[in-house]
Design a protein that fits this description.
The chain is an alpha/beta fold and 358 residues long. It contains 15 helices and eleven strands. Strands 1, 2, 3, 4, 5, 6, 7, 8, 9, 10 and 11 form an eleven-stranded mixed sheet that branches.
Length: 358
């Protein structure tokens, strides 16, 4: 089950995977005007036929350079921005967006089809440095079998997680090393405010929350509800993951179950949005622009859910039935303005680390 696709699948966005860096087809574009190089996190995935359609229609060949989890990929891109490894970067999300924009990672490009993006996902409208591509919800998932066996109602909200009934049941990811871990911290800050989230985490800590480095470990080794966790005899029936993780458990199971083995606590969700941008100093800007247009096209947007387990952002893109059935998006997730995240993120992570890990 530890194939790249399953890892990409069950996490959806920005996890820390086992491979640090790889490329599916070689290095940088080195000025070849017929090649577009995409730099992304390890969870990038697309159907071969869909990518082949783009290559055929545009005349460009696509190379993919993967750079670890979302945070690592952004940092690496910033370090190489004067001589970038590629033309387009995909996978910076709203939790890290300000870092990329403030440091000049992207040049301006108003993508064709940008007007089809649902209005509430549009950002940076005056400069068009990034284009929204997908969204997902970071939420607590629960192991249905555990709660049924113990005749316990699964937690539904942030408030529930600190109740004695759920002591020693939750595993989450480190907010300083993991995108879902950071999203969960931001969700708690959005819920309880600048002054209240620390008290909340003190209570969570007193209630036995376990913290591990990344999603892969939390979900596939510590969480009793996942296929990997069952194999590992995991003992935590609550994990911070995604609203789209239950469909992944169904899609990758053989034989396919009729219901998902895991559920979502919808009162714990934080909305995460992923963007793509044309890298400053890209060697093939023309090809890069064509590729960003492709990412917003209906073919890619409708292919994306069952490859990266995220939701499309363009109006009218169809979502597969596995999503509507097993992992619908949260109706009322916590959100936070990118400017607020920018102003507080680093300090919050520092405070969180000393509160929770020390």
């Amino acid at each position: 089950m530890h194939t790249k696709t399953f890892v990409a699948a069950a996490v959806g966005l920005g996890l820390i995977t086992l491979s640090a860096c790889g490329s599916s087809s070689g290095g940088q574009s080195s000025g070849d005007s017929r090649t577009v190089t995409l730099v992304s996190h390890d969870s990038w995935a697309v159907s071969k036929s869909v990518l082949a359609d783009f290559e055929k229609q545009s005349g460009y060949k696509v190379r993919v350079l993967e750079s670890g989890d979302a945070g690592q990929a952004v940092n690496k891109a910033l370090l190489t921005k004067d001589n970038p490894q590629g033309d387009v970067f995909f996978g910076v999300d709203n939790t890290l967006l300000s870092r990329a924009l403030d440091n000049g990672l992207f040049q301006s490009y108003a993508a064709k089809g940008a007007n089809t993006v649902q209005s509430h996902y549009r950002v940076d409208q005056d400069k068009h440095r990034v284009t929204p591509i997908d969204y997902g919800d970071i939420c607590v998932n629960y192991d249905k079998a555990y709660f049924s066996k113990h005749k316990l109602t699964p937690p539904q909200s942030f408030d529930d997680l600190v109740k004695p009934a759920y002591k020693n049941l939750l595993v989450t990811e480190n907010a300083s090393t993991s995108s879902p871990g950071l999203g969960f911290l931001l969700g708690s800050a959005a819920k309880y405010g600048d002054g209240g989230w620390q008290d909340y985490w003190k209570k969570l800590r007193a209630n036995g929350v376990k913290v591990v480095d990344g999603w892969e470990q939390a979900y596939n080794q510590e969480f009793s509800g996942s296929a990997g966790g069952k194999k590992a005899k995991a003992d935590r029936p609550l994990v911070v993951s995604y609203a789209s993780s239950p469909p992944a458990e169904v899609v990758f199971a053989d034989p396919r179950p009729t219901t998902a083995p895991t559920g979502v606590s919808y009162g714990t969700c934080f909305r995460q949005i992923e963007y793509a941008g044309l890298l400053s100093n890209a060697k093939n800007t023309k090809g890069g622009k064509a590729f960003i247009d492709f990412l917003l096209g209906k073919e890619f947007q409708q292919d994306m859910p069952l490859n990266m387990f995220v939701y499309p952002v363009v109006e009218g893109a169809k979502v597969p039935k596995e999503f509507t059935e097993y992992g619908p998006a949260a109706k009322d997730p916590e959100t936070m303005a990118p400017t607020k995240i920018a102003a507080n993120r680093d300090q919050w992570v520092k405070s969180w680390t000393s509160l929770v890990l020390k």
